Amino acid sequence: MKRARTKIVATLGPASHSQDMIDALFEAGVDVFRMNFSHGTHEDHQRIYDTIRTVEREKKRPIAVLADLQGPKLRLGKFEENKITLTQGDSYRFDLDETKGDKTRAPLPHPEIFKVLKKGELLLIDDGRMRFEITSVGDGFVNATVLTTGKLSANKGVNLPGARLPISAITDKDMRDLAFALVLGVDWVALSFVQGPEDVAELRKLVGGKAGIVSKLEKPLAISRLTEILELSDAVMVARGDLGVEMPPEDVPILQKQIIRAGRAMGKPVIVATQMLESMISNPAPTRAEASDVATAVYDGADAVMLSGESAVGEYPVEAVTMMGRIICRVERADSYRRLLAAERLDRESTTPDAIMAAAHLAADTINAAAIVTYTSSGSTALRAARERPIQRIIGLTPNRTTARRLTLVWGVTTIEIEDAQDIDDMIHKAKAQAKIEGIAKVRDRIVVTAGIPFGTPGKTNLMRIARVD
Fold first, then answer.
1. Any alpha helices (H) in 107-251, and if so which ranges?
2. 29: which of 178, 224, 294, 352 lies 20 to 30 Å off by Cα?
3. Is 238 part of any domain?
4. Catalytic residues, which ones?
5. Residues of the domain holding 377
6. Nearest alpha-carbon partner for 213 in 227, 230, 193, 195
C-alpha cells in the first residue's frame, strides 16, 4: 500500500469523528490523527480514540494519534457591549479590574502579563487584528495607544511578541488532559506555548517515555532557542498561525525553511501546520496559493503537513485530505524535488549507525535498489534512514507496536509491525517478503537491509546487507 513520503496529519472534530469518516480519511491518505484538547470532553476524546483503533485493526496498518494540549490562553475579560470600536491614535487602558470593559478600558485578568510588559512593547489582540503600543506601565495596569482602527470584544486572545511570561507551558487543565491522554495510549503529545527548552523538559518528566513529544514553535522566544528545544523534543511543529501574529508575516516562510533544515539535521520530524488549505473549510477546491503553500512545505523537506479546521469542522474533510495528497504526490514525482533533496548534504555524526545509513544510501543509489529496509526496535534506525532523504522507499520493520505507530509521522517510512527476526537469514527473508507484499519491490529487485546485532538493541545499527527479492 504505497503512500506519499510526506505524511499527512488531520485534526478530528465535529465534521470527522465518525468511524466511516475516519476510515475515509485514512484511505484518502491520513497517517496521523490529531485530537485537539482545546475542544471537547474526555468522553469525546475517548470515543474518537477508540474509533481510530477500530479502524487501525480493520486496516491492519499502524495509525498514530497526536494529543494536542491547549496550553495557557491569554484572553480579555468581559465587555459591557457586544463590541466596541477603537480608532488609531486613541488611548486605551488594560487592567486587572474585573469590571466589564468599555471604550476607555478593558479587563485583562492575567497578573503575569503586567509583571513583564514594558513601555514601547506591543500588545496584540484577536490574532493581531488589533494592535496597541504600551505607553506606560503601573501596578496592575498599562496604558496604550491604539495602532489599528478596529473592534474589541470579550474573550479575544492576547499575544505579547517578545515578552517571556513567567508561566509554565503546562496548565492545570493540561495536566488533567495529559494524564488522560497517556492512559488512553496516545502516540504523540504536542506542547503549546513553548517558550524555551525548560518547558519541554517539564513535559518530558511528566510523559515518562509513554509518548513522543512534539514541541509547537509558535513564539519568537522559542525560535531563538531552537537547537536546545530540538534536542529535548522528539518532533516539532511549525505553528505558523501564532508565529505570523507575533512576527512579521514575511519572516515566517524563512523560519519554516530554517526549522525544517534544523530538524532534519538532528533527525527530528517536522510538521508544518496552520492554514494550509484554509479555503477548503467551505470550498471543494483550494486556491492556487494554498496549493503552492503545501508544495513549498514538501519541497522544503517537511516530514508532515497538517490540516486543522479543514478536516475538523470543514464541509469537505475527505476532499481536503485527497487534495493535500495529490499535491504531495505531484511534487514528489518532480525531478526538481529529487534534485533539491539530493543537494541538501547533511553533516553526519561519527557513529556506527550514521556510517551504516550513509553506506545504505550510497549502496541503494549505486544498485538502483527498490527499497531500504530497516529493522528497528526504538525507531532510531528508521529516523536516521529518513534523515538521508533517499529516493528509495524506506520500510521500517519493528516488533514494537508503539514504535510502529510513532514512525507513521516520519518522512518516507512505511511502517510494518512484525515478529522479531530470529537470526540474520530470517531477517533477510522477512525484509524481502514485506517489500514484495507492500508492492514496493518485485521479483529480482534488490533491496538494502540494515539492522542492529544483537536484535532488539536500540540505537545499535551495525549491519548492512544487499538482497535480491525472490
1. 111-116, 172-184, 197-207, 220-224, 226-232, 240-246
2. 178
3. yes
4. 34, 75, 216, 274
5. 352-468
6. 230
Task: Find the length of the chain.
Answer: 470
Q: Is 449 a member of any domain?
A: yes
DSSP bridge partners of 373: 395, 449
The answer to whether residues 201 and 148 belong to one domain is: no
Phi-psi region of 142 (alpha: psi -120 to 50; beta: other; left: phi over 0): beta
pLDDT in single tens digits along all 470 residues of the chain: 568 999 999 999 999 999 999 999 999 999 999 999 999 999 999 999 999 999 999 999 999 999 999 999 899 999 998 899 999 999 999 999 999 999 999 999 999 889 889 999 999 999 889 999 999 999 999 999 999 999 999 999 999 887 888 888 999 999 999 999 999 999 999 999 999 999 999 999 999 999 999 999 998 889 999 999 999 999 999 999 888 888 888 999 999 999 999 999 999 999 999 999 999 999 999 999 999 999 999 999 999 999 999 999 999 999 999 999 999 999 999 999 988 887 877 777 778 888 888 899 999 999 999 999 999 989 998 999 999 899 999 999 999 999 999 999 999 999 999 998 888 899 999 999 999 999 999 999 999 999 887 776 666 788 899 999 99
- Report d(CA 275, CA 294) in Å as an integer: 10
- Do 141 and 95 fall into the same domain? yes
